[in-house]
Amino acid sequence: xxxxxxxxxxxxxxxxxxxxxxxxxxxxxxxxxxxxxxxxxxxxxxxxxxxxxxxxxxxxxxxxxxxxxxxxxxxxxxxxxxxxxxxxxxxxxxxxxxxxxxxxxxxxxxxxxxxxxxxxxxxxxxxxxxxxxxxxxxxxxxxxxxxxxxxxxxxxxxxxxxxxxxxxxxxxxxxxxxxxxxxxxxxxxxxxxxxxxxxxxxxxxxxxxxxxxxxxxxxxxxxxxxxxxxxxxxxxxxxxxxxxxxxxxxxxxxxxxxxxxxxxxxxxxxxxxxxxxxxxxxxxxxxxxxxxxxxxxxxxxxxxxxxxxxxxxxxxxxxxxxxxxxxxxxxxxxxxxxxxxxxxxxxxxxxxxxxxxxxxxxxxxxxxxxxxxxxxxxxxxxxxxx
Length: 386
Description:
- It is built from 12 helices and 18 strands.
- The protein is α/β, with parallel strands linked by helices.
- It has 3 domains: 1-28; 31-184 and 316-386, no CATH class; 188-313, no CATH class.
- The strands form 4 sheets. The protein has a 10-stranded mixed beta sheet with strand order 5-4-2-6-9-18-17-16-13-14, sandwiched between helices. The protein has a 4-stranded antiparallel beta sheet with strand order 12-11-10-15, with helices on both faces.
- It is globular, with a radius of gyration of 22 Å.
């Protein structure tokens, strides 16, 4: 056998051996039984991005369903909006909590994760329709049964995690009020999103309705072309553009050194998904969003009773088992096939994310994944034997 061919075969064997060993090591990890109720009402496609990275994290850390000991499935193990195959027929099913099963769900489950309650709208589901800001809702919003399950889980001191937009549109006013009162967090009504380009004709253009809303509010044309952050509340819009209102356009999640060490997260990481601005009340703020504003940006925020720093993750201060994530944390496009590889983040870092501080992939691997893993590990350790 020729030497170049032999070297090639050896390299291929090593490349195949590494993931095989990693898979075996993952399979022989101790299983950690925990029953989790997952709710995701925003599932317009079969990839289920709204909760897939949460299931990935459970799977990789070897958290399993207590009844059968199997790993969680992003396709099956959730409540909410379920697209049915074949997708071209546009059929779907609503998997809701029934009032008669709430007590049983609370008794038989250890944790509750509301990944996304926003829902699916007509324009999201039926492609090719002219996009408007808000089309007719097909399904979505936190309802009374969702709220009652929260009550029952908290009453039993179970682990509860809620994400961005839990109690805002299209959730009805009564459910919004009751949920805010229950968890001690209130919404200001403001939501934000980073845009790589604010130019209306770029590849990453903002939605067409934003310039229309801006002109209606300010009586001026939309002239923004750089990257930036757009803030929205009802029919109000604020645009923060890099160079004028921001020194750096990417929002940052900042965590103090104590909590960073406790949850295994970095003290600073950039964030590109949607977020909402909340009042944490008496809850402990574990992490906070930071907008890198200029004096002009601060003035614009102050005129709308906002600041450049606001909560990103809060924790209920007494029992410390209720968390609110004020960002679309679980929405990450990650290679799910790596979920069953142990220490994939160390061995495969080169193709997972880069050392560039502005790489949006860093958020999942450096912040979300360790945060979820440590929250669940701590809860399981506290409740072991109960």
